[in-house]
Structure formats: C-alpha cells, structure tokens
Amino acid sequence: MPTVAIVGRPNVGKSTLFNRLARSQRAMVDSQPGVTRDRNIARVRWDTTEFLLVDTGGFEDADQSPLAAAVRAQSALAAAEADAVIALFDGREGLNPVDRELVRQLRTLRKPVFFAVNKLDTPAHDDAAAEFFALGLAEIFPISVAHGRGMDELMERLVAQLPLPAAETAAGNAVRLALVGRPNVGKSSLLNCIVGYERAIVDATPGTTRDAVDTPFQYGDQGYVLVDTAGIRRRPRVHQHLERASVVRALRALERAEVALLLIDATEGMTDQDARIAGYAWERGRALLLVINKWDAVARERRDRTTFQTRIAEQYATLAEVPCVFVSALTGQGVQTIFPALQRLVAAHRAQMRTVELNDVLGAATHAQAPASVHGKRPRFFYATQTGSAPPVITIFTSAPDCVQTAYERYLANQFREAFHLYGTPLRLRFRPRPREATRGS
For the chain, how long is the longest CA-to-CA vector? Predict the structure, then answer.
C-alpha cells in the first residue's frame, strides 16, 4: 500500500490534516507547538484510493536542542520512506527560514511533493500564499484544513500520483515471519545466517537496525518472507525518537506477519520485556516461536534446555506451551531446527478442525468438569464449530454466554489446544447463544 507523509514546522496544522483525512482524532492537536513527536500512522481512503498516512513531528531548527534534531530527523526519515509528501506551511505566520530548509531537503527526494499553505480560510486570504513562491515552487495549494477548503483539489492531484498497491507475491502461500526482540539479541545475525549473506547490518551497538527489511527466501518447498525489525525496548527506555519510530515499524511488521520469531538472549534469560513482546504478538493473533539465541555462549554446565524451558514456564505461565528452539546465529548451530518447528507452528495456526471432533472434545471436557453457576444460572453447552483460522477461532453455542467464567474459558481452551496440538498459536473462543435461545431472549 502506498504511503503519504505530512511534514512541516510545528503548529502548521499537520495533525489536524491527519485527523481530517483519517476521519478520527488519533493525533493530538494543540495550539502549543511540538505536541506531535512520534509518528502517527493511519489507513486512509480517498475516493477509491487507499494509502497509509503518516503524521510527523514538527520540522524545527536542528540547533535548538537534541530533541528537536531527533524529531527533525524522524520527519526526514518519514519523507524519505513515503511515496508522496505533503509539505504544509502556515499562511498566517508567513514564510519562515525553516520552511526554506525544509524545501531544500525535499528537493533531494525523487518523489512527488505537494506544497500546501494552510489556514487560508477564505479566498480573500489566498494572497498570503504568494510569498511562498519565493521558495522557487512551481505550484502551491492554498487550503484551510479546519474548514476543508481546497482539500479536494490537493488530494485529487496527490492520489493521481500514487503508485498502485504492490501486488501480492506469486507464492500466495508464503509464510511471513517477523523477527522481533529486544535490541542486540541477534536478529540481524539470524537473518544473515538464514539467507546466507549479509542482508542486514550487524553491529554490537544496540539499535543498529532502524527499518523493517523484507527478505523473501525458499526453504524446501515452502516460501517465506522474513522481516528483520528494530529491537523493542520498554517505553521508559526508548528516549530517542528515531528509536521510537523503529518500535512502530517493528509492531507494523507484526501486523503484516503470520508468525513471530521472538529472539531471546540465552545469556540473560527470559525477561519481562521479552514477555511483553510475546504479548504484542499474541494480542495480534500471531503464532509464536521462541528462538533462544547465543546458546553457545552459555556456560557448558548451565546449558540444559529442559531447565531453561522450565524456568520460562515457571516465570511466565502463558508461555509454558510455546515451542522453543536453541540456536547460535553467530555459528549457525541449531538454526536448521527452526524450520521443522515453523512447519508444526504454521500447521497449528492454520488448523482446520472438524465439527464432530470439536464437539467430542467439548462433551468430554464439560463432562469431566462442569462450569460453575453464576447468579444461580449454570451455562449449558450445545455445540462448537470452527469459525476462523490463522489464528483458530472456535465458536461455542451456549444457553448463557455471559455466565462463562474466565477460568472455565481457559480450561476449555486448554482442552482444545491439547486435543488438536495447537501449541504456539493463539486460540480464540467465542461464546454465542444458540439461535433459538437468541430468538427467545428477544
């Protein structure tokens, strides 16, 4: 999908434009400059064209402060990554020296840039746009984002210049893998080890990787697309805005992937932040494989895989059934074990379960342990059927959906997981009233 970036000085109306096009209030808007520091991203449709819209922090004088320099660098990075750029100026304040520097940088980009002068609420104010021609611009769009004035002409011209959405890969069955993890756990080294050449820069300095890099490859008969991502840190430690933007891209990579390969530093063990990253993947319905990297660096007397996995299960119960592989991306040791584990994981993620077998499991589970009564009402379960895949979704029809307690839902999920070997994939249970019950209730 093509991407459009909005850039400009602080308080020229970038976030207002973003909200108008996104039809939401996702970006904070305030009269004080500099409210937006991190990038906001939204999926936008204009007429029949869909694109990703990126709001950026204000483009300021880089000499003001390290923060200003970081925000400015992030804006430049967003413009460089985009397929088209909207450069926004403030028609009420007039031309500013920083506008001139912004235009100079944008001229180096080989892509469409649309220059718009905002806050011109009526045609009588359009003369204020004339001074911006001093920047050597061939075309300027006078607009008022707050009132929607001039927006149609600007956006019609912009979408006409956007590339068509990229076609899906010919190998429609390719498995998309997102490499995620804390900085410096060896993601880029693993990518290079898998594809067999220096696809990504490897450096001991945490945070070397800032962009998500898609690498298609074949292993046996299966096609894969591997996405290397920037490391994800806890929010209080992500103090550089370029690094924050890298976290956004890492989470976007999860959105595009089917399986998350979560790299864990074996010398440090599983951390709370690793568990949070696993949670990010799980919440998004991604299958999960724990890749314990740097296994060769662990002291030989402590190199016990069962003990390592047991420790994970004790500290993070939700990860107890997630499969693990133990590798050294540096030497290649154990890397070949990733792909059999992936095959089992993808099979579980895409599992198709027969209704009759689901109901056999449901009947056995409820017979072994009946649900508790809630306010004197004990839910009865009628039948189950699969209603989704990747991740698997099982819908269970019951007399009282609201009376199914969380603990019992977890119990049923574990029974289905064990019966169908659904390890490493989220399993969604949906409880619905039987159609006859729903009609009676209405």
Answer: 80
